[in-house]
Design goal:
This protein is mostly helical. The protein has helices spanning 2-8, 17-46, 51-70, 89-103, 116-142, 147-174, 181-203, 213-230. The chain is built from 8 helices and no strands. Helix 2 runs antiparallel to helix 5 (116-142). It is globular and about 50 Å long.
């Protein structure tokens, strides 16, 4: 479980905000490249237009709605005002639901033959959730939650995407009459990816909208990886 493993590293390694921003920029660029170079062409070749675009837009605005609950922790930070030793339930709900929905397109991972799309998609979700896990565990520690509670919340977070994959698989098995259900799940998550990726990249900008060279390199590396895995 890379997400869980990343989350508990905050107990042993102190990551600076700049390190987290680099990870976020890299993962956001990978998601953006994966969406445009691989996932979107596949979606529009499977689902008739304009219905494909409507599902992508639905995912985009689902993420807008989720951020009312999660306070934007999917971008690697969250501004909350809560008592110490407590974590807002709304944030947990938004973040866990976000991770669950992202797992829905991974339903095919339960099939014997896994295609390249599933592998690249799984990598994208993992890369995306590692910095989120770091930010989430850092927030929990800042709220002075006990170590056991932090670990418990990280375990739940790590299980959300696999649970989404399982539910997606069961839905595809029982709702076989719904056309292109797998591609619909993917389109919704691509909409979420586009919202997250563009927000992170623009939030990575410095004064006068200029990027530090390290952030620019992180973005270019993320795009390069997305390109290589989409070939």
């Amino acid at each position: 479980m890379p997400v869980f493993a990343a989350g508990i590293t905050v107990f042993f390694i102190k990551l600076t905000e700049s390190h987290l921003k680099l990870l976020l920029a890299f993962s956001a660029a990978y998601l953006l490249a994966l969406s445009f170079l691989h996932l979107l062409p596949e979606i529009f070749s499977t689902i008739p237009s304009p219905r494909a675009g409507l599902w992508v837009l639905a995912g985009f605005f689902i993420q807008v709605l989720l951020e009312f609950f999660s306070s934007g922790i999917e971008h690697g930070h969250a501004h909350i005002h809560a008592e110490k030793n407590k974590i807002p339930l709304a944030l947990l709900f938004g973040l866990f639901l976000h991770s669950f929905i992202e797992g829905l397109p991974l339903a095919d991972i339960f099939n014997a033959s896994q295609n390249k799309r599933i592998i690249s998609f799984l990598m994208g979700i993992t890369l995306h959730n590692i910095p989120i896990s770091l930010a989430f565990s850092g927030l929990l520690i800042h709220q002075q939650l006990s170590k056991n509670k932090v670990i418990m919340y990280l375990v739940v977070l790590a299980l959300m995407a696999p649970l989404g994959a399982l539910i997606g698989y069961l839905m595809q098995s029982t709702l076989a009459n719904i056309e292109h259900l797998s591609s619909i799940f993917t389109a919704i998550v691509v909409g979420i990816f586009l919202h997250i990726a563009t927000t992170i990249i623009f939030e990575s900008s410095e004064k006068n909208h200029r990027y530090h060279i390290t952030k620019l390199l992180s973005i270019l590396l993320g795009v390069a990886l997305g390109y290589l895995l989409s070939k």
